[in-house]
Design brief:
2 copies of one chain form a homodimer.
Chain A lengths: L6 H6 L20 H8 L4 H5 L2 H14 L5 E2 L6 H6 L4 E3 L3 E3 L7 H6 L5 H4 L1 H14 L5 E6 L1 H10 L7 H9 L1 H24 L4 E6 L7 H18 L5 E5 L6 H4 L6 E3 L6 H8 L4 E6 L8 H15 L4 E5 L9 H13 L3
Parallel strand pairs in A: 1-4, 4-5, 5-6, 6-7, 7-8, 8-9
Antiparallel strand pairs in A: 2-3
Helix pairs in contact in A: 4-8, 9-10, 9-11, 10-11, 11-12, 15-16
Chain lengths: 342, 342
């Protein structure tokens, strides 16, 4: 089906666009009362992720309500460790928790390589429903966590300030670590390919915990695996968003991907210098800017757009939108992008 | 009193040294059974901070037990907000908690500028006792939090993943924010000068939450205040450790300070390029490296020392030592520095 609005895909491929496309990380979520209404009829976050009709519904909400230029499938990066054999619980206000974690090579051996059509059919079904219901209005973004980030959760068993257990594993068991990262990578590639078959027009890889590793370890234990994913996905553009990976922007620019996400701490001019002009950049307004006044939001959005320039840019925040953000402020950001006169 | 071992001070001033000095952030703390023994006789962390004899005792322990080249006074950066009028509680395993936080300009007006000899006499007394009991063996490090980090705690009321309340304040109430930052800065300068009078041979300013701000806000709301502190302290060398401030290394290099701390994510060669050779660098081994084998620790320590070179370097970790680190591994790190043959 021909897309009516393909700004995002053209910007991703480096083609000229009439205006900069815009969407927000976590746009399908708690900021919208309509999302909270759907969620309140279910037992919790996981039931929503696992119920394709409802996941599709909340995926499309921000397209209708906020007017974004893309939908991103409502799901979670932790469906991969779960499909591999480590189930997780989502604790309200506390984040994810894995009752079982990886401690030894035996634990790694027990994990399976994901067969997405079986193990993650609910995500694929949500993608198919969304794709149909969007009827070509905007592109649909699929996603997965980067292997290092998934690895961290599997070792740590949840969030952490230091991820010291996961990093300890890299020092003490580098071989086990690489076997596990390989298994996660193979699962992720199979999963992303299935998402594309189910309708994803572009893929984003989230390396949420990139910032916790020093430069050498980041290359060895994260980038090498993201690189394998980028090389395996050829049908649609790929976005790599490695939060906190200041040191690795040069190496990320050599990946076989089309778009690089910037967090709000990464200077725009500096990042353009480091990355060069063969990649599209995505980002990177501080999510806290949306707590400001309407006029402040317009001002900082315009400044951001000026600094990125009119091409090879996808407007977004530099991190997921904070759940207590006023949807009117989000609309203000989106309208500022749409109305910008370079 | 003449110091018997002044390696740290000479390295800080950029003088030639026979070997690289070494100490660890959080060396006086839970890694040592001797510390836990002292602590177990008291009601908790705060009683230890507020009991000069005991604080002095745990300050000196790592000099005796680990053989470090400096003592750092056992205290907490949060004594400043407490002395200004916001008391805190330290929750075991959960970090600090402030029952009262700053929400309005009225709250800011109620805060006092610290009079250290009155409000923080217990820290000064601990410094005097430590200085006497060290009898010149090694230099004594005093410290304080950077104004932005203290501000964050005062607004947020504790630790946070995003510090979104503190950052929201910067967007919505920039004037209130600056009045508060000025008050914290004035209190901190008075406090650090008193620490020097009480015996501190060098001062370290910890900007623990530097990494949460984008480049422009970091300059406006953090660096400008650190700069005032650096300009006010002239009698002893000053170290600025801004964790996560990748973007600000160039600006930090222009501060009126002698030493710049690097976290373990900051590449050494890259940081030397950015900062130049007019500052001494401190750091930056990954604290997780101390979970590795003895031979691994020697290897990575030697690599670090090679990359920093023999001058203008103070060996340390790139963050506080993790509390579950084996003291024998810490000793291995310290010995590796002492035995290094460039």
């Amino acid at each position: 089906m021909q897309l009516k609005n393909d700004l995002l895909l053209r910007a991703a491929r480096g083609e000229k666009v009439e205006r900069t496309p815009v969407w927000l990380m976590r746009q399908a979520g708690r900021i919208l009362p309509e999302y909270r209404a759907v969620r309140s009829n279910l037992s919790g976050f996981k039931e929503l992720v696992e119920t394709p009709e409802r996941a599709a519904e909340v995926t499309i909400q921000p397209v209708d309500i906020l007017g974004v230029d893309a939908a991103i499938i409502f799901s979670d990066i932790l469906v991969i460790p779960e499909a591999m054999g480590l189930t997780y619980q989502m604790q309200e206000g506390k984040g994810p928790y894995f009752p079982k974690t990886i401690k030894s090579i035996k634990d790694v051996e027990k994990l399976k390589i994901v067969e997405p059509e079986e193990d993650l059919h609910y995500v694929l079904e949500a993608l198919r429903i969304t794709k149909k219901e969007l009827s070509g209005r905007v592109p649909l973004i699929g996603f997965a966590g980067a292997p290092w980030t998934i690895f961290s959760y599997m070792i740590e068993g949840g969030g952490s300030k230091t991820f010291s257990k996961a990093r300890k594993m890299l020092y003490n068991e580098p071989e086990l670590s690489k076997i596990l990262l390989d298994k996660i990578t193979a699962s992720t590639i199979a999963y992303l390919k299935a998402q594309i078959r189910a309708g994803a027009d572009i893929i984003q890889v989230f390396d949420s915990w990139a910032g916790i590793l020093g430069p050498d370890q980041y290359k060895e234990f994260s980038l090498d695996y993201i690189s394998k994913i980028c090389d395996a996905i050829n049908d649609v553009p790929v976005t790599v968003f490695a939060k906190g990976a200041y040191n690795a922007r040069k190496e990320i620019s050599t990946l076989n991907c089309e778009v690089i996400g910037l967090d709000w701490n990464m200077g725009i001019a500096e990042s353009k210098d480091i990355i060069g002009d063969t990649k599209t950049l995505q980002g990177n307004l501080d999510p806290c800017a949306l707590y400001g006044s309407f006029s402040m939001i317009e001002k900082v959005t315009n400044e951001m757009l000026r600094e990125f320039g009119p091409h090879r840019h996808i407007a977004n925040l530099g991190h997921g939108v904070y759940p207590d953000t006023d949807p009117e402020k989000v609309k203000c950001f989106i309208e500022a992008v749409k109305n910008y006169q370079g």
